[in-house]
Structure formats: structure tokens, C-alpha cells
Write a structure and sequence with these properties.
Chain lengths: 290, 290
């Protein structure tokens, strides 16, 4: 149900971008980047928070969730390019630059960032939510821009001295925080109490990703593994060991459940967080992590 | 006067992005990309249109103009990278990727796109213009995204068959159209009558750029020249010859002057268009073009 809302909103957004006049290769590449089997973790979280807050403008919440996913997809396309991870596989398929070339991949990332903000603005008008627009855009922009969003997180990888906590908070946590806070703001609720839920889930997700990178086969992961060690990036597994990282993962998930603010849909949301959390650990560790 | 308004607005925007927590190299590179001697053609046009429309929310118009310039800067940074033009000079200085490396250059472009939309949203709240926010964001996004904005324009360079008119309209014209229309919308005016002015100025600017690329020395231009021929890109000079291109340039400028809609500041704006137009032709051709 939530997933079909998100897919429809993404379809509407990408459909507008690939409309009349679009260069055909760019249109194909935009679609390829967005519809390639992503789990839609962040937009589901965004819609779930909007639902917990009453969801009085569902179309605006859906567009907000779609924009968070478009920004996530943009970051994956750019992150896979040769000057970053030089990854040829993503979700078991060739990456965008492998399929369409580096120039188009660069433009797909740029275009998806623009499309994210355009999507929110269009929906605000369509859904009678223009008075919420500025707040949602500021939250989403903070999650992806500088000084503390996703772009800043990736930029830490190019610094001579890395601030590991800021790195993880910005690279992974910030977009989860944007997802929860923007979900609340899209539904007309105060976003501030929703920050902690996003932060804990982002931290959990980062640890799970470190475990996946360190322990999975490339086939399980659907992308190259061992990248943290190969690029000498900080990793919870290297810092804490596998057992330590698993303990940290469980603690963050418990903290996330506890961080759900009191609201009409709080219990449903806590159940959803527990359910999603069970899927976070790498398949080979599922029994240990459960 | 206009220029200092724009520089202050850009300073405020970049100042926010390089704030507490920003990776130091990213902060330096963001500033380098925005403050490196650009002529600020598009934001001046945006502010001039807002002024002609009454300029009742000057802070919002300034932020809108700054966002147009941030997006222009982002496109230059990405366009200069090795997978596009592989340019090592821009405005007679080393390009961002030469100074800071390709990963940081990619992130500077991404971060400036995000910052552009964040800047408009912040100013809308600060200046009491939230009811104009959706319209301005949609106009600006249309100028830079897909299907017909700057990103689409650059993507035409990767297509096996190029639609030359669409290519120029999207790559250069669209952001000029965004500048005029967003200037009007930021001042609370109907943006539609302002489209033609932007389109003609964008076309004039594109022809002037083709002339510059074909005829100037690299020193005059402050960037590598001969790029259109080197990359086999369409050019007014190749299509029409130098005299034909100059005639087309003059015709577009006359059309731009004639396209200024009736409004309180129309005469001032027409004078400004004429003044700016005189600077468009390459220095070596200034006497011929005048």
C-alpha cells in the first residue's frame, strides 16, 4: 500500500522529467536510475511518519517521500562513478555510467536533484499545501546539502583528516533525518520531535551497510563489497569487530523504537520500525542479528 | 548597486553552506566555484526584471537571482570536468576539479544545486513571500532540469542525433528564461510575458559564446577556446559564418529590446539590455559588432 503510493509518486515525477523535448538517452537513464529495484527505505519511512501524523495531505506526503528517494538515487549514481567508487554493479545491474556513459550519469544525478525540489513544489500547489512548502524544502535540502547533509558526508572522504562521527551522520544519517522530519512537516506536524527517530535509524542503517560490505558476497549484496577496506573508509566493523557492530546495530534499533514520539499512529510506526529493522542485517547474519 | 545586492545574496547563501560542520576542503571549493570573477549576467537580469516589476520583496528577488547564479556555477563546475570538456581553465583560473580534485568538484556541483533551492526557500520565509515560493521554484527548476532545462541541454551532446534548436534553447536559453520569469514571479508579477525577453537574450548570448569560442584567443576568453570544433558541437559560426553570426546576434538583441513588456520600469530595462548587449561580442570584434 505504502509502496504503491511511493512508486506512483516516483512515476509521476520521472514521467514529468522525461516529457516532451527530453533527449532520449537522458530520459532512459533517468528512468533506469530510479526504477532499478531499490528498497525505498527512506520514502517508506517518510510516508509512515506522515501517516502517524494524520496524513491530511497524502499527495504532498507522497511527493515529499518521492523527492527523498530521487535524492538518494542521485547520490548513488554519482557515488558509483569512476572518480568515487568506480562501481560497475548496483542492485545486481550495471551502474548508470556503465550503461549510458559518464556524461549522462553526471547529468542524471544533477537532473534528479533538480527534479526532487520541483516535485515537492508542484505537489504543494496541487494538494493545497503551499504554506508547508518552505519548511519541507528546507528540511530536505539540509539532509542532502552542505554543511551537514549527504554531499558534505561524501566530501569527508576527500579530507586529509576525517571526522568519523560527522562523516556517518552526514553521509547516511542526514537523509534519514530528512525523511522523518519532512514526513511530519508534509502532514502539518512539528518536525522537531521526529529528528531522533531518523538519526537512530540512519545510524542503524550505516552499521548494517558496514556489515554488508565487510561480510557479504557480492552476489548477496548486488554490488561490489569490501569497498570500505579498499577505499580505507571508516567502518563500524573495523572499529568494533563483527560482534561489536551487531550489538551497536541492535542498540540503535531499540533507540529508534523508543524515539517514536507520542502521536495517533505511534504503535503502528513502532511495529514497522521493528519489522524493517529485522531486514537490515546481511542475510548470512540474519539468525545472529534477529 | 544591483551587483552588490547580488554579491551579498551569494555571500549569504555560500556562508550558510560552508557553516559549522562543513568539511574544510568542500567549504573552500564551494566558495572558489562561486566567487571567481563571474560577470553575474543572469542574476543581474533577474534583479533588473524584478525592479521593472516593482521589486516589493527585494530580499526575495535577490535570493532568487542568487539561486540562478548558483545553478549556473554548478553547471560550469560539472561541465569543466574530464568526462565533459576536460577544461583546466575558467575565467583565467584553474577549474574546480584541477584545484580540489574530481570528487570534490562533483560534490560542489551537487551541493550548489541543493543550495540554490534552499536559498529561495529560506528567503521566502524571511521576506514574507511564501505564497510566491512554489511558482519561483517551478520556474527555476524548469530552467535547469529535464526535459527542457540546462541539464537536458548538456545531455543533447551525448545523443547520437542532435536536435540543434532544442540543444541551444535548453543549454543556454532556458536559464535566461528562468532568470527573467523568476525575477517577475519573485516580485509578484505574472511571469509569462517575460519569457520572450529571456529567450532572445539567451539566443544572443549563445551566438556571442560561439563567436568567442571560434575567434578569441584563450587569453581573451579566460578559458580554452576552439572547444565547439574540438568536440564537434553545433555552432552559429560554423552554420552561418562570422558575418552571419554577427547579424543574427544583432537581430536577437533587437528582438530582446522589443520583447520587454510594458511595465513601470520598461524604459530603464530596455537601456540595460542595450548596454549589456554591447559587451557580448568578443573584444576583437567589438568595433564590428557595435
Amino acid at each position: 500500500m505504502t509502496l504503491s503510493r511511493i512508486e506512483l509518486a516516483l512515476e509521476a515525477a520521472v514521467g514529468a522529467a522525461e516529457g516532451k523535448g527530453c533527449p532520449p538517452e537522458l530520459a532512459k537513464a533517468l528512468r533506469y536510475a530510479v526504477f532499478s529495484g531499490g528498497a525505498r527505505v527512506r520514502p517508506r519511512l517518510c510516508v509512515a511518519v506522515a501517516a502517524a501524523c494524520g496524513d491530511d495531505r497524502p499527495g504532498f506526503a507522497d511527493a515529499t517521500a518521492a523527492s527523498v528517494e530521487l535524492l538518494h538515487c542521485a547520490s548513488l549514481v554519482h557515488d558509483d562513478m569512476p572518480c568515487f567508487d568506480n562501481a560497475s554493479l548496483r542492485r545486481a545491474k550495471p551502474t548508470v555510467h556503465v550503461m549510458f556513459g559518464e556524461p549522462v550519469a553526471m547529468l542524471v544525478g544533477d537532473g534528479l536533484i533538480v527534479l526532487a525540489f520541483e516535485t515537492i513544489a508542484r505537489a504543494a500547489v496541487r494538494c493545497g499545501a503551499t504554506e508547508r512548502l518552505a519548511r519541507v524544502i528546507k528540511i530536505v535540502a539540509r539532509g542532502v546539502g552542505a554543511p551537514n547533509g549527504l554531499v558534505a558526508g561524501q566530501a569527508w572522504e576527500s579530507e586529509p583528516v576525517i571526522d568519523v562521527d560527522r562523516y556517518h551522520e552526514a553521509k547516511t544519517g542526514a537523509l534519514f533525518v530528512a525523511a522523518t522530519m519532512a514526513g511530519a512537516a508534509a502532514a502539518g506536524a512539528d518536525p522537531t520531535p521526529w529528528r531522533a527517530l531518523g538519526a537512530h535509524l540512519g545510524a542503524a542503517y550505516q552499521i548494517a551497510d558496514d556489515l554488508l560490505d565487510a561480510l557479504s558476497s557480492s552476489e548477496d549484496a548486488g554490488k561490489p563489497v569490501g569497498q570500505d577496506r579498499a577505499h580505507d573508509r571508516p567502518s563500524a566493523v573495523h572499529a568494533l569487530g563483527v560482534d561489536g557492530a551487531l550489538a551497536r546495530l541492535r542498540a540503535q534499533i531499540e533507540a529508534a523504537v523508543a524515539a517514536v514520539p507520542d502521536c495517533a499512529g505511534a504503535e503502528d510506526l513502532r511495529d514497522l520500525v521493528r519489522l524493517q529493522a529485522a531486514r537490515l542485517a546481511p542475510k548470512s547474519l540474519a539468525r545472529t542479528a534477529a
